[in-house]
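S.,

Sequence below, as promised.
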Amino acid sequence: MNTSLQVTSTVVPSPAPILANNSTISAKLRVLRIQQVAEKLSIGKSTIYDWLNVKSPRYDESFPKPFKLGGKAIGWLSSEVDAWLLNRVALTRVTDLSEIESDTL
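The prediction came back faster than expected:
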């Protein structure tokens, strides 16, 4: 009599880690959809797609990467977009007014 044992494996997704003081963390997290990011930065959605596209001449590797929310939905953490914007302001802030043409003042 030949009996064989057949083993099957099931992958069970691990639950999200339980964080100490979870309510404080979730209160600070805000997810933005692409339209909200575009409005926050006063740009078009196509500009965001260009900044994310490695093949685009407008690619910006410093721009925050989106993450999957489920299905085809993606989002950005508001804090990451804010940090990127503040960094961008700091890098491009004009400190010498002679750099600005007089007709723009």
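Strands lie at 31-32, 67-70, 73-77.

Coffee later?
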